[in-house]
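Justification of computing resources. Each target in the renewal requires a structure prediction run like the one illustrated here; the chain below, 343 residues long, is used simply to show the kind of job we budget for.
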Amino acid sequence: MSETARNGKERDKPIAIYYEQPNWFVPLFKQMDARGVHWTKLDARYHQYDASSPEHEYALLFNRMSPSAWQRGVGHGIFYTLNYLKHLEDKAVRVVNGSRAFRHETSKALQLALLERLGLPYPKARVINHASQAASAGEAVGYPLIVKPNIGGSGAGIKRFSSRNELQAAVEQGGLDFGIDNTALVQECFTARDGIITRVEVLGGKHLYAIQIHITGETFDLCPADICKNTKGEELTRMACPVDAPKTGMTVEVYEAPQQVIADVERIMQNAGIEVGGVEYVFDERSGRQMYYDINALSNFVADPERMLGFNPYGRLADFLIAEARVHKAKQPTRLVAAGEQA
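Resulting structure tokens:
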């Protein structure tokens, strides 16, 4: 029995970090350890819960489940996680990036609906549930276009088509991948003006920083932690992605986002329920339109952040989680551990 239990005081409940891809979160794990707080890891790949449990075990749970898990053979965890997060919320557990956030993270269709509802610009798109609908959707959207799975992650399954004939051939050959929920977007294909994509990160739903990514061509995988150079050509130390991840050739620089963009992004995240994440937007080369095109609740911070940003966002994230756990604890009725109760 612990000393706190013998004294009849409330148990020290850990902050739980629920994750699927361990390499991505090593920097956060280190920051939690450095602060000496009580925290624990929960592996989303192999997990179970009791539907009748009162869930007094955790001070807070931070959801880091990835929608790209299906590419690593653990797609079963995606739908399971939706159920688990709702269970925790129903039991009054404080969840950061909870069920509403994860629903948006795992549905490009919901992201479009959100942008439409907020009156924000986004690439023209049709949502389809069968390959036979791709060509007719393509006529409505126009070419060039991309077809991408509704549940994506790291550019998974995205293909570009320049004409109806090219798209129809892919349909007939079974070359379209609709992902694990058999839903896809047929979406206009933009060309980033000056080869620049902008990503705005939030913490606690508020603007944290913004970066501009200089792409090398048409790419659909924009993990900021895996960009190995800044715009000065200096090598960056990659902290979150695996050390053997391929070098992309892309470069990155810190950017001061316009106030209107910051307001848009914070509004997007508030409505999506995302407290930690990023939004990407682009100016289309052909039309000049600004378009928001990705809402991400599983954001890996930029590589070599202290050098790039002048601060460590993983440290700020750890501090945010600790502060949120304390706030939530203060709102809860005090639960005493009886002298004879097992700790």
